[in-house]
Amino acid sequence: MHRERFGAEPEIFVGPGRVNLIGEHTDYAEGFVMPAAINFSTLAGISQRSDGKIAIYSENQGEERVFDGVQAARSNHWTDYPMGVIAILSSLASEEERKISGFSLSIWSDVPMSSGLSSSAALEVATALAVLSLVGASYPGPKLARLCQRAENEFVGANCGIMDQFISLNAEKDHALLLDCRDLSFKLAPIPDHVALVIANTMVKHSVAGGDYPTRRRESEAACAVIASHKPGVKFLRDCTLADLEKWGSEMEPKSYLRAKHVISENLRTVAACEALLKGDMKELGRLMAEAHQSYSRDFEGSCVEADAMVALAADLPGLIGARLTGGGFGGCTINLVEQSEAAAFAEALGARYAEQTGIVPQIHVCHASGGAHRLE
Ligand code: GAF
Question: Which of 118, 201, 279, 334 meets the CB 3.0–4.6 Å disulfide criterion with 363?
């Protein structure tokens, strides 16, 4: 499609979506997350052009926009995601990056949008690799993840953390990745062959940019500010303990207390979940996922009726190891770790139960953990 539209052979780059096994709304609190990249990706094809313009076409949107050059501000359009990355990269100091202009970019994706599987990060990351390759520049994965996050925070105006961009760039095939969002150090944990990632889309739309995500972030940060006023050195909920919360919780808005309870306990669960996975203790991993969902739903109030139903309906199906709502919340997908031998039957039964209970036909995908972003050979 790139060749037909733009008359030039593109170089193509792949940015995968992700599923988070555990560790929700902990990344911007400098805590822990444990995502894996999945076999749904965004492809970005790029070729040079001689008129200095930047053309961006999305097959999924069925739309092309042509810009005179790098834009300084958002236009509240889907092109803000790639343009934000282009703008951030071209604002950097190196000579290569100052040459960013004059190219055609075509985008195609099979990452379901607004489903909590990081279609935005996949697009940012694929765009970043494409643009950098055109100007002959490159960055280490963790640094590029920060730049893509900046594009989303500053240009798009969505206040996300680092998890999605980081895993899309740095994932390893067949592994989950425990990320310390404070210093971006990470540990890889193999996902055993007998375990499938079954992703169940509630079909309820999720979004980071508006609504409840920023509200929850503010509420949890308000709780941190109360603890910080008593305890020097506290900057993020990562620095707080459950004992701190009990000590000063009465000074907080009740909602802030509950949001912080989720974040602080979720950090502990996420580190413990990685240990369980490394030890092959699937029972403990499943228990932690169930606890995480309860905490996300009851204390963080980050779930919705449909996601709670999807988790509950999975509970007694053969092969289930653990289930919870994944991603930014208020809709989107659940992640179910399921014995591989039962995965197909599990997916079918869960889909039928969910459709019967809610009247909504879900999409259920049996996935595997994929490698990180790369050039398509
Ligand atoms: C979204 C955000 F983009 C992530 O940074 C993270 O906060 C997640 O929601 C919740 O864990 O995916």
Answer: 201
